[in-house]
Queue: 3 jobs
Job 1
Amino acid sequence: MPINTKLALYNPFSVKREYEECLPKKLEAGKFYKFKEEGIKIYPLGKKIPLVQIIDSEYGKCLKPLAEISIVEETHYLLAGLTHTKGEYIVHKLYIK
C-alpha cells in the first residue's frame, strides 16, 4: 500500500463533511489537530508533509500547500462496513497568513 505524501482535507465551511474531515477554520503553528478520512491511508509518522485543501473531490484536485505538518497518530477502523483513517497532526510552519 502506498504511503501518502500529503494530508488533503476539505474546506472548513463544507456542509456535507464532518468537522475532522475539514481543515480547521484557523491554523496555528505548534498546535495539534485531528483528522478523519474515508479509506485506509498510510502516512509517514513524524515526517514533515504538506497540508492541502481539496477543491474537487471527484477528481482529487488540491490547492497549494497551506502548511507543513507531521502526522503523530494514525488509526484505521471500520464504520458501517467501510474502512476509515483517523489521527492527529501537528502544524510546524504556515505557508499562508
Job 2
Amino acid sequence: MALLLPNHSKQGGNVKVTAEHYEALREAVAPTMMVANPTAWTSAGNSIMRWRWDCLWMSKYMEFTRWGYNDSHIDTALRAIAKELGK
C-alpha cells in the first residue's frame, strides 16, 4: 500500500512512499524531532530542511538508505512527519 504525500518541490506532483516505510521512518525520527528545536537551526543560519535531515541522522536510523527513494522522496516524508508533530 502506498501513501501519497504532497511534494512541495519545484517539480510538483506527489511522491509515493509505502505506508510501512513512512511509519518506520516516523517511529525512528519522531523522538528526535520532538526534542530538537527547529528555530535553533534556522536562527543559526541553517535551513529547515537541514533540521529535518539532522534529526534523521541523529536518530541513527539507516534503513531508509536501502529503500531506493531519492533524497527528495525522503525529505517529503520527513516534512510530513514534522507537520504531523506540529514542528
Job 3
Amino acid sequence: MKVFLLVFILVGISACNSENPQLIVIKNHCLTKMKGTDKFCNCMSEKANKNLSDKQIDFIVIGFTGDKDQANEIRKSMSVDEITHMGDFMRVAITSCTEPK
C-alpha cells in the first residue's frame, strides 16, 4: 500500500510539472531558428502560455511546421480579434522579452 501511494504521488508531481508540448516547440523553434537566448526563449514561451489560447498556440506551432492546409483550417476557425491579438502578442512579447543593450 505504501509503495502504491508513493508511486501515485510521484506520478502526480511529474504530471503537474510537465510542460505543454506546444510550448516546448515554441521554445525550441526560438532557440534554433530565431537563434534566441535561453532566457529570451523561455520568456516567449511563458508569455505565450499566459496570453494566448490553445488555438492561437496551435496556429503558431503549425506555422513553424509549414503545414499551410492545417494552418488555414485553424485560421478559418479564428475570429479577427484572435488573429489580431496574436500579432499584438508577438510585438509586445518580443519587445518585453528582449534585454536592453
